[in-house]
Amino acid sequence: MILPLITLPYVLRVLGFENYGTIVFAASLIAYFTALTDFSFKYTATRDVAIFKDSPEKLNLIYSKVLTIKAIFLLLSFIIITIVVYSYKPFYENRLIYFLTVPMLLGQALFPEWFFQGIEKMKYITFLNLGIKLFFTICIFIFIKKETDYWIFPLLQSAGFVGAGLVGQFILVRKYKLKFLWLKPRIIVQTIKGNVPIFINQFVPTLYNNTSTFLLGILTNNTFVGVFNAIKIIINFCVSLIEILSRVFFPFLNRKKHAFLRYKKLMLAVSIILTALCLVSYKLVFWYLNIQDDNAFTILAILALGLIGYTLYNIYGVNYFIINRQDKLVMKNTIISSMIGFVLAFPLIFYFGIIGAALNLSLSRWMMGLGLFYKYKKRIK
Question: What's the rounded mean pLDDT across residues 40-51?
Answer without folding.
Answer: 86
